[in-house]
Amino acid sequence: MMWLSWRQFRVQALFGAGALAVIAVYLLYLGGDIRDAHDVYQANCDNSANCAQARSQFRSTFQNTLLFLATGLALIPALIGTFWGAPLIARELENGTHRLVWNQSVTRPRWLLSKILLIGAASVIVTGAAAALLTWAARPFDDVVKEQFDTFVFGARNIAPIGYAALAFTFGTVVGLLLRRTLPAMAVTLVVFIAFQFFFPNVVRPSLMPPDRTTLAMTAEAINSAQNLGSIGGGSVIGGVRIPDAPDAWIAETSPLRTADGRTLASSEFNGCLDDPPKTGAGGTFGDTAVCLAEHDLHVDVLYHPSSRYWAFQWLETAIYVALSGILTVFGVWRIRRRVS
Length: 341
What we know:
3-stranded antiparallel beta sheet, ABC-type transporter activity, Transmembrane transport protein, 11 helices, 5 strands, transmembrane
């Protein structure tokens, strides 16, 4: 049964091996470039002012490329589920070729499991190898920039992509088993899994472990270290704040800007500082605006996860995806034994 499954899959396997070879060549080249630039960054980082400038230059050189690669790697599991998983059983059922196997000595569950194990293993190997190569290539960049909890970065490094690939493949296989039509199964798999990849990191991941809580005083220096200022739902907010005791932490949630008495800063006060702040000649990211806001004696409540929890999140999320993949496999075996004619 494994030999038959391999013969049916060999064209896709050769395509996957070729794509992985191309990815490997490029990432090995990119990894060398990043390491050379990292050596230059370290050589130029001889004091705090030079370090900030060198870090900014090093980050801007590779950030867009690595973000594009992380996004591309996030698509690999979705494409595997679409082009390897969804047609796997749907095509057999659609063309009626499954009857030939079922009339032999092979049972339906064994037929299904043989296909899932062989091609599922190939899916995990291809995705895991691509993730390992990208993790190696980007390591000096990640050590400097410290954005390991970013949605796309987290899902494209280390072991998490292995869980994504397993789930995408089994999900596509089960969708094909249920719909019994190849093209609809491929469309459903692609759309649903991509939506799931946005849903899980933004809704489920922050709740996998209880976050720590702290209150940060929004001094001019603290405001200038943030990434953005804005207004959502009438409340003035600050995004990308940094926690002094945990500078590399993942900020899960930030409250609106609040005054010393706990009142949310009024939009009129916020907009006044944003649009027409007193001219103080202050420097920094937000300059006079930061000084103006700091005069209101502001603070924010922050929920965050320390960077020390990174590997706990990696293992936990991977385990969840693998467990969901196992549940889908069990459901597929039950379905093909009980319901499929």
